[in-house]
Amino acid sequence: QAALRALHLSLEIVGAFHDVVSYLLAFAQLGNSPNCFCALNPEPLTPDWGGTDRIGTELQEIQKMIDSLQNPLDPSEVAQLLAVHREVIFLQFDAAIRHRLRETFLSSGNASAYQSVTDRIYHALPPLSNSAIQSAFASQLRLPQLLDPQSCRTLLHFPWRTFLMDGGLFPVSINNTININYNMQLCLCSLSDADRRVAHGELVAMQFLMEDVLQNSYGCAVEDHIDCQASLAKSKQQNLAETGHSSANWLQNSKKTSKLLLRHHGPVISCNLLRSFLMLWKQLEILKAEWGQLKLRTEDINTVPLYKEFCEQYGADILYPAMKAIVRQTGTEEGFGEPVTSTQHILPPRGASEIEMKVYQ
């Protein structure tokens, strides 16, 4: 049993680390010429996308995260960290290409680049996600309805059916591995050099956004901690019944504060926070797309005029009321005015976090 557990943990660590390194190499190669797909004769890494220096820096950051674990020598903790970190970097790439980059192209009037990326992401991004890919032999041996093929309980009760439903198209073939470099290159392969620089800017901006999410969560935790201390001091001056009620509220807020502080300091919990934010973003974008199609009565918002109309409608019906609700809750409603025109950009409220704004939307 000990040897089997050690084998499982070793494979989890190696598998996750392999994908992380493959992603770093593929990201650095995105700056090469679009028609370079030959793995036997690759071009040297260009410094525009970080080159070898960025790869070394990222690997050092991973080592620092491992060193900051509660027990860095525990393979289960290392495997958990690498697994969630792998999921975060691929979710970042997905959000940057699927949402930020395409919106940038449409808002700037570059419809051809938007359509080029759109045509390719439906083939390139699913293999990079953790979505279930069923076997070609699973059509006659399916799982019962409502069962998740990636659930441990489903695997326990229906091991062979679960394997067929989430083992890839040909699960026992030796070349069933995902070509991460190819799929990442496929997203941008037909873009011009200028459009690739735009894509690079959006991918870099995603990294800054992730840092802001963590920093804002830490700031909220410190503020909540101060509020909790003030609430406790005030409760001591009240009667016994009120004290019990206030202490319960303080305890609840204190637990929330502790969780937020841990999110900033613990690498695994920080990665889980980023993963939750990226999943929330993904869900919001799906709802936005469905809402826009119903509102504009169109099958797809893929032209500049449609996108402009969608932004105006969404800003007036969803975004502005959501931001108004945030400032109303914080008591700063006076400094948040209505947009003068329908095309005016709605600025986020001061101090509002990205998570908060997306939740309210």
TrEMBL record:
Superkingdom of this protein's organism: Eukaryota
Name by which UniProt lists this protein: Coiled-coil domain-containing protein 162
Source organism per UniProt: Aptenodytes forsteri
